[in-house]
């Protein structure tokens, strides 16, 4: 850095050298009795906000401490659940013995059993309260982490990236720890991932906003993201993303894990169009990845497409009677909506024959053909989006600018539809992608360029949920 004294020396020695330069003015120099020179310097406005970066680093440290606390709580919850499960099993066995031979037990012994039941109920209620607090803390931490990534992205785009790099690394470590904490939390409170032994969705968590998409461009409002619903061995942590400024689908990027998704470092980006001989482009938003294969709406002819990312080969099948006139409420081009759940692969659409009512088709994955068809009673253009869980269709609609509602379900096992009201918070007013993933029981939403997700909680068949 040039010192003020040196600048002054240069200035006085050759004032002509500075003619025409705005930052320094000939009339600004003064020489005192001691022959010392002072100059006015006009510094640029874009000084790196070190204070803001230090504040971020302190926040990361604080959040890290919170996460350490939550992880220790989860470890405690795990041990308590093991103990309580053992107590319940022993109590169940004792009650069974009493029921089989009630005359062998006195009234006093039966009262003792009742006391044991009440004690166990009290323990479960205590654990339930702790879990609810822990859930709220994790949601709060997720919001703080989202704020951090927004600030980091702004700093990185505006100032020297190298100065932000250390903080970003710390953030990534924090993000990984948060994901691990949420995963363990999810495993405890959704221990039967892949099981359908429940009575359907009871509620959704607050929206968890990961960050702006891989293009760092909110103009890419069409797209989707998530995980493979039935991953190949070794690809269980893989994520995918596809985003576009319009409804034309021409590529999909896959990421080794969540870290690489956030760092925008794809393992590979698959192009669906190379030349006229290999044109596998699609249209719309509601595509999914299953068995490392992209299922999507093929562009021409109007049909369902299947593109294998491993072999880079595709095939399409026309859906009998499917119409391209009935899209979802939030955007056009969403005529074929693919979904995957614990029971397999599905496609949602409408027909002229159904007069726009939503039709659900079960796909035979091996033959890539329609296996069974169900007609619902809801008008597809009135639906915000739809997804499948355990053979049950869930349809959403807007309540207001901040609230969405699951308002209708259709059970393929009973062939019956019903109206419900499960409200959840939207990140923004509209969105174009919403799909459930059975591998982690999460909903993945693509919301005007942002990655958004929700934890899904189910109503237990036999006991009240702990959370």
Proper CATH architecture of the largest domain = 6 Propeller
**How many β strands by DSSP?**
25
Number of domains: 3
Could you tell me how far the N terminus lies from the C terminus, measured between alpha carbons in angstroms? 59 Å
Number of helices: 5
- Cα shape: globular
The profile of the biggest β sheet is: 5 strands, antiparallel
Radius of gyration: 30 Å
- Following the backbone from N to C, one meets helices and strands in this order, namely HEEHHHEEEEEEHEEEEEEEEEEEEEEEEE
Indicate the mean pLDDT.
Answer: 81
Q: Oligomer, anyone?
A: single chain
Which spans of ≥5 residues are poorly predicted at pLDDT below 50? 1-31, 41-45, 463-467
The fold-level CATH name of the largest domain is Neuraminidase
Q: By helix and strand content, what is the structural category?
A: alpha+beta
CATH class type of the largest domain: Mainly Beta
Helix content: 25-40%
| Beta-strand residue fraction | 25-35%
């Amino acid at each position: 850095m040039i010192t003020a004294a040196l600048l002054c020396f240069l200035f006085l020695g050759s004032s002509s050298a500075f003619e025409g330069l705005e930052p320094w003015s000939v009339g600004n120099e003064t020489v005192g009795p001691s022959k010392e020179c002072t100059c006015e310097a006009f510094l640029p406005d874009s000084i790196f906000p070190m204070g803001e970066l230090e504040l971020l680093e302190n926040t990361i440290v604080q959040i890290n401490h919170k996460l350490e606390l939550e992880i220790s709580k989860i470890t405690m919850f795990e041990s308590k659940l093991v103990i309580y499960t053992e107590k319940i099993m022993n109590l169940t066995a004792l009650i069974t013995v009493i029921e089989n031979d009630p005359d062998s037990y006195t009234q006093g012994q039966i009262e003792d059993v009742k006391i044991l039941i009440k004690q166990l109920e009290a323990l479960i209620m205590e654990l339930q309260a702790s879990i609810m607090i822990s859930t709220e803390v994790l949601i709060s931490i997720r919001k703080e982490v989202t704020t951090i990534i927004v600030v980091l992205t702004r700093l990185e785009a505006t100032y020297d990236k190298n100065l932000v790099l250390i903080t970003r690394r710390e953030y990534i470590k924090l993000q990984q720890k948060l994901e691990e904490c949420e995963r363990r939390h999810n495993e405890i409170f959704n221990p039967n991932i892949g099981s359908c032994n429940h009575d359907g969705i009871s509620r959704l968590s607050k929206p968890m906003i990961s960050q702006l998409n891989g293009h760092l461009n909110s103009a890419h409002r069409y797209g989707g993201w998530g995980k493979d619903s039935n991953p190949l061995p070794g690809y269980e942590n893989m994520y995918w993303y596809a985003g576009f400024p319009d409804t034309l689908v021409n590529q999909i990027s896959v990421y080794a894990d969540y870290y690489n998704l956030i760092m925008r470092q794809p393992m590979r980006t698959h192009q669906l169009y190379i030349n006229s001989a290999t044109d596998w482009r699609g249209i719309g938003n509601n595509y999914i990845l299953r068995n490392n294969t992209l299922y999507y709406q093929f562009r021409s002819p109007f049909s369902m497409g299947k593109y294998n990312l491993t072999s880079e080969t595709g095939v399409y099948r026309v859906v009998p009677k499917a119409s391209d006139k009935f899209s979802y409420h939030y955007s056009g081009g969403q005529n074929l909506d693919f979904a995957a759940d614990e029971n397999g692969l599905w496609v949602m659409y409408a027909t002229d024959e159904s007069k726009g009512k939503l039709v659900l088709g079960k796909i035979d994955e091996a033959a890539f053909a329609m296996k069974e068809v169900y007609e619902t009673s809801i008008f597809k253009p009135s639906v915000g989006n739809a997804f499948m869980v355990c053979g049950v269709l869930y349809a959403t609609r807007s309540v207001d600018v901040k609230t969405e509602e699951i308002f209708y379900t259709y059970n393929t096992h009973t062939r019956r539809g019903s109206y419900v009201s499960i409200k959840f918070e939207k990140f923004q007013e509209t969105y174009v992608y919403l799909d459930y993933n059975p591998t982690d029981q999460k909903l993945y939403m693509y919301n005007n360029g942002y990655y958004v997700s929700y934890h899904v909680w189910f109503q237990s068949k036999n006991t009240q949920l702990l959370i």
